[in-house]
UniProtKB/TrEMBL annotation:
<dbReference type="GO" id="GO:0008972">
    <property type="term" value="F:phosphomethylpyrimidine kinase activity"/>
</dbReference>
<keyword id="KW-0418">Kinase</keyword>
<dbReference type="Pfam" id="PF08543">
    <property type="entry name" value="Phos_pyr_kin"/>
</dbReference>
<dbReference type="InterPro" id="IPR029056">
    <property type="entry name" value="Ribokinase-like"/>
</dbReference>
<dbReference type="GO" id="GO:0005524">
    <property type="term" value="F:ATP binding"/>
</dbReference>
<dbReference type="GO" id="GO:0008902">
    <property type="term" value="F:hydroxymethylpyrimidine kinase activity"/>
</dbReference>
<comment type="pathway">
    <text>Cofactor biosynthesis; thiamine diphosphate biosynthesis; 4-amino-2-methyl-5-diphosphomethylpyrimidine from 5-amino-1-(5-phospho-D-ribosyl)imidazole: step 2/3.</text>
</comment>
<keyword id="KW-0547">Nucleotide-binding</keyword>
<protein>
    <recommendedName>
        <fullName>Hydroxymethylpyrimidine/phosphomethylpyrimidine kinase</fullName>
        <ecNumber>2.7.1.49</ecNumber>
        <ecNumber>2.7.4.7</ecNumber>
    </recommendedName>
</protein>
<keyword id="KW-0067">ATP-binding</keyword>
<keyword id="KW-0784">Thiamine biosynthesis</keyword>
<keyword id="KW-0808">Transferase</keyword>
<comment type="similarity">
    <text>Belongs to the ThiD family.</text>
</comment>
<dbReference type="InterPro" id="IPR013749">
    <property type="entry name" value="PM/HMP-P_kinase-1"/>
</dbReference>
<dbReference type="GO" id="GO:0009228">
    <property type="term" value="P:thiamine biosynthetic process"/>
</dbReference>
<dbReference type="GO" id="GO:0005829">
    <property type="term" value="C:cytosol"/>
</dbReference>
<feature type="domain" description="Pyridoxamine kinase/Phosphomethylpyrimidine kinase">
    <location>
        <begin position="12"/>
        <end position="256"/>
    </location>
</feature>
Amino acid sequence: MVPRALTIAGSDSGGGAGIQADLKTFQELGAFGMTALTAVTAQNTLGVSGVWPLPPDAVAKQIEAVATDIGVDAAKTGMLFDSAIIEAVAEAVRRHGIEKLVVDPVMIAKGGAPLLKADAVEALRRRLLPQALLVTPNIPEAEALTGLAIRTRADMEKAARAIVAMGAKAVVVKGGHGDGETADDLFYDGARVEVLSAPRVATRNTHGTGCTFSAAVTAALAKGEDLLDAVRIGKAFITAAIREALNLGGGHGPTNHWAYRTKSGS
Ligand SMILES: Nc1ncnc2c1ncn2[C@@H]1O[C@H](COP(=O)(O)OP(=O)(O)OP(=O)(O)O)[C@@H](O)[C@H]1O
Ligand SMILES: Cc1ncc(CO)c(N)n1
């Protein structure tokens, strides 16, 4: 069987984040990629200059079109923009029985542009998290979801436990925004805590790191990996992509989506 992976996310014209990052990652990992577009952004490495959301019905219809014909082994969500789109996605995921769902709770782009309305955090928490196999917040997103301040490893774990208590089966709180020697992510599935660690790369080319990581986990899940193995594959994929970053644009450049394939083992 061909592994089938769906991304429900926004378009990044710059190609480093959003559905573009997701499709490239799916392809690199040998999963057949499909998309349900939530919004179009005009964006490059310097920032976001425009956002045009799609009607919630258009998002639901895209999910229905692919789920009822091609089938979905695993799906991820990225930029969802507002609570009406979140409601439509939550309902479509439930109706089509998509069980391997990775929720990347995208809120703010690297340059500070909002990709989710402030009043939609509640809808994310109430409607989508209970359906998630995995939620992948960065530290500011974990703080917004839980209301906790996160400074230490113990704080990351406390937030992870709170997110699982909201109904998600598992969570990875990503430590990319820290400043230590290593970029450490904390995994919790209601039973065990695992820290995934990689050397921190000194670079500003980190546009789309979160999208790429969650897409790699989704592709691995579509291929039948179990959850913690899929998260480890995601970590290896993003670490290679950051280490071999492409120096494109004048701001936060994209990661290198082919590095895991071409550089692994080196
Ligand atoms: N400089 C870095 N060196 C190594 N790993 C990093 C670095 N920055 C981020 N990572 C890793 O990349 C993954 C994505 O984490 P990050 O916190 O950057 O996501 P994010 O903020 O959601 O990204 P974005 O919003 O730009 O898509 C995590 O595994 C994190 O540890
Ligand atoms: C469309 C889109 N989704 C997600 C992110 C977060 O990196 C972004 N910058 N743009």
